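To: structure desk
From: M.T.
Subject: fold request, one chain
Message: Could you run this one when you get a chance? Sequence is below, nothing fancy, just the single chain.
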Amino acid sequence: GYTCNKKALASEAFMKAAGQNGIPCSFVVDGTGKIAYIGHPMFLDMPMEQLATGTWDIQKGNAAIADAQTRMSDIYKAIATEPKSAAAKITEFETKYPAFVSVVASLKFDALLSAGDFPAAYACGGKLVDEAIAHKNSAELNSLAWKIVDPDAKWAKLDLDLAFRAAEKGVALTQEKDGAVLDTLARVYFLKGDNKKAIDCETKAVAASTGKMKESLEKTLAEYKAKASQ
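Reply: Done. Structure tokens follow.
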């Protein structure tokens, strides 16, 4: 315990000295042993690529990343208040910072959905699902599917085929052991009108869950059963 505490204190002191007050945080050391970049790992592509080609400029590079962070903050705010302007801001961001396109990919999906541009949103979502499948990222697949079928969202148009592809693959990757992913697939079945599969899938979700989540899923299961009995 003492050793762990010493390491924790040393890490805290190092972060403080670097002017960082949050995690995750990455540090990149160049070939001369000097620190070339300190910051969020989502922006690592730029310094890593430019260090590899010998074109990294610490001053200009970090200024560009600081600007990118400010623009992202504006995008987050716009998604909540002016989603159409958020989509435009993201396009501008992608043009200015092509190295960070992947950083705003999920935000673009959110912005397009919120703006009601469903053709563009689901085209974007399809690419994200393809990438998540390629990387076997079950959490991302579940997130993408749920964004589509979330009952609180109330989208005017639902791409249930896309949601199904994401959720079904997420369930397969987690071997039917993740209650949250099973719940998402059950919701897709329910919206497709297949109450039997929705009930079967939600039953598995309940069995794979514990605590408050289990209680919540039991209520959803009761909802599906009530719908099936009508």
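Reply (cont.): The beta strands are 26-29, 35-39. Let me know if you need anything else for the meeting.
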